[in-house]
Amino acid sequence: MKGDFAMAFSLDRSLSYVRIDEPNLISIHRSAKSAGPNDDVFFGHLCEAFILAARENNTCRVYAAIYDTQLKSNFIYVPDQATGKNVDGDALVCEAEAFLKNMGFSVEPVNIRFSPAVREVVIRDIKVMRPPKVAVVKPIAEPSVPTRQKDKPHVPSVSPAKVQIFETEESKGPEQDSNQNNGATVFERALSGDESTRDAALELESLKSDLAVAKQELDAERAARRAVEDKMALALEKGSADFAALKMDRDRLKSQLASLREKSDLRYRTQATAMSELESENAGLRDDLARLRSMQDNTAAELAEEVKTLRDALRKTESELDAERSKNEQLSDSVQTTSREVETVRAALNNADESLRVERSKNDSALREMEALEQNAAAQLKSLNQKVESLHAEKRLLESIAAEMKLKASGEIERLQKLNQSQRKAAIQKISELKEEMRQLAEARAVISSSFAVPQKLEEGQDPITGVSKQDMPMQPLDVACSNSYTSPDPFGCPACVDEVCFEPDMTLMGVPYAEVGNVMEVHRSFNKIHAAPAGRLVQTCEGFVCLVNDGGEETVFAVWLMNKTDEVLVCRPNITRDSGYTSRQLLQEGINYFERVGFMMDSLHLEADLDLRQEQLDALSIFKKVDLVCAA
Predict the structure, then answer these.
(1) Distances (CA, A) of 13 to 44, 74, 78, 103
(2) Closest by alpha carbon to 115, among 356, 379, 458, 373?
(3) Beta strands across the sheet bearing 59-68
(4) Is residue 66 exposed (0-12), middle (13-18) or buried (19+ Cβ within 10 Å)?
C-alpha cells in the first residue's frame, strides 16, 4: 500500500451496467441484505449493493454499484481520482466498503474461486453486470377526431348561443337523418336572415362535413384495431403452445440434471474413499517424519517441506471437489433461468468431468511421489543414523575440551579478581591522597582570598573545593576497576552501535549475488514471520535474512526481504562505502538490529562445511542468485 488515503465515489450516469470480462475479474462483494439508501436519488426504494474489482491493462478498477429492486435499474459509482498501476486494489475495495456503509449497506465477499465456465455463470447472476431489462409498455392511443385546422379556411367565430344550437342538433343522433328536411329548412331560414346568421350557418355546415370525415376515419381505425386484436389472439395461442413446449423441455432438463447430480455424487463418494486411504497413508508418513525430525533438524525441515507440499496438494484436491459440488448446485439453479443458460450448464458439467479426470491423474501421481518419498526417507534415515553416531563422538570430544577450558578459565578468573582487588585498593588510596591535596589547596586559596589573610577552617564533612556538605553532593562511583570492566553486549565485539547506517533497497539485484559456494560466509534468518509491505509492495507475510558474502576479496553485507505471497526478493545494501571505517561485523550486527527493530527474531543458520551440502542449502533458500565470475567482478 502506498499510504493511507480517503477516496470519494461519484455516480457515473454514462454507465447502465458494469461490463467486466471473466479473466479480468478480481473480486466481487455484495450486500448481505437489501436496504433503503439514505440518498434522495433512490426515493426510499429497497436496493442491493455490489463492489466489483477488475484488473484491466495492469490497472486496478473498482466499481461501487447499487441495484434498485423496484425500478430494475443500476446506479454505478466510480472513484473521483484516477487509479493507476501503483494503486492497491485492496485499499480501493476498503474505500468502496466505507462508501457503501455510509449509505446503509453491509457488504461481504462472494466466492469466485471456480473454473472459468462457472465464473461466467456467477457473472451473469450479478444483476449490475448485465444490461437492465426494462419493460417498455406502449399505451393504447385513444382515437381522436382530426380537426384539420390547417386545411379548412378561416371561419368567423360563433357565439355561445349558436354553438349550443349546434350541439343540440348533433346530440339528436339518429333523429338527424329523419329530420333532414327540417334542418334544410332551418339552414335556408338562416341564409335568408342577417349577415351574422349566415356566417354561423356556413360554419355549421363546415363542421358537419368535418364530422363526417372524422366518423369515416374512426371506423377505419376501429377496423384496424380489430385486425390487430385478432393477430394478438393468434400470437397468444402460439405463445401458449411455445410455453408448453418450453415447460416440457424444462422438465426434461430437470431429469437430466438429477441424473448428472447422482453421477457427481457417486464420483464424490469414490473420491472420498480414495482420500481416506490417502489420509491413512499420510498419517504413516507423518510418524516416520516425526522420528526423522528428532534425529536431525535440518534434514527433517526439508522432509517437512515436502510433506507440506503433499498436504497442500491434498487440500487443493479436496477444495476442488467441494468446488465441483458447489458448481453443480449453481448449475442446477441456473438451469431454471433461461434456455441459453442451459447450454452453459452443460458445458460447465463437461468441464467438471474433465477436471475430475485431471484430479484423478493428479492423485495417482501424488501416490507415486509418496512412495518415492518413503523410499527416500528410509535411505536418509540410514544416513542420519550414521551422522548421529559421528555427532555423538564429536560431542564427547567437545565436552572434554570444554572441561579443560573451564579449568583454565576458572584459574584466569581468580587471577583477574585478585588483580582487580589490588587495583581497587591502589585507586582508593590514590583518591584519598588527591582529596588531601585538594583540601590543602582549598585552605591556601581561602587564606589568599581572605582580606585579613586568616585561613578559614573547613567544617567536618564539607567539600574542600566547593565548600558544600558532602551529604548534599550526589554520590560518585568510586569503584574504578569495576567501571573499567564493562563487557559489551554485542556478540560480535562491537563497542557501540552504529547509528548512521541505513539499509536501502537495490532494485538492480534480484537476489544475493555470489560466484562460488564458499563466498557465502554467514547467513542469519528470522524464525518468525511478520506482516509488512517493504518498499511499497503488497501487505503480506515476510521473512528476513542477513547475509555476509565475500565479494571479490571484500566482505559485503546484504539485508534481504522475502515476500511469501508474491515470492519477491528485495535486497538492501548499507548506505555507506567500504572505506568508511566500519567493519563487516559492525554492518552485520546493524543488519540484524535493523530486522529485530521491525519485529523479526533472528537466528544464525548453520552452514555445512561440505560445499555440495552447502550448495543444496543455498538452492533451498530462494534469496540467493549465483552469478558468473565476470559479473561478480
Answers:
(1) 19, 10, 10, 18
(2) 356
(3) 9-11, 73-79, 59-68, 47-56, 25-31, 107-110
(4) buried
Higher pLDDT, 58 or 561: 561
Integer Rg of the chain from CA: 48
Residues 6+ apart with CB under 8 A from 618: 514, 517, 520, 624, 626
Grid cell in block for residue 133: 431489462
Name, in order, each residue with C-beta under 8 angstroms of 292's C-beta and a sequence gap of 6 or more.
Answer: 299, 300, 303, 377, 380, 381, 384
- Strands 512-514 and 624-626, how do they pair? parallel
> Which pLDDT tens digit goes with each residue over 227-261?
888 888 887 888 778 788 888 888 888 888 888 88
**410-413, long-range: CB < 8 A, 24+ apart:** none
Nearest to 530 by CA among 552, 563, 505: 563
Distance from CA of residue 279 to its chain's centroid? 32
The Cα–Cα gap between 19 and 158 comes to 64
pLDDT confidence of residue 138: 41
The grid coordinates of residue 72 equal 430494475
Q: Which three cell numbers stand for residue 626?
A: 549465483
Residue 512: CB atoms within 10 A of its CB come to: 23
Integer Cα distance of 571 and 376 in angstroms = 35
By CB atoms closer than 10 A (0-12, 13-18, 19+), residue 348 is: buried
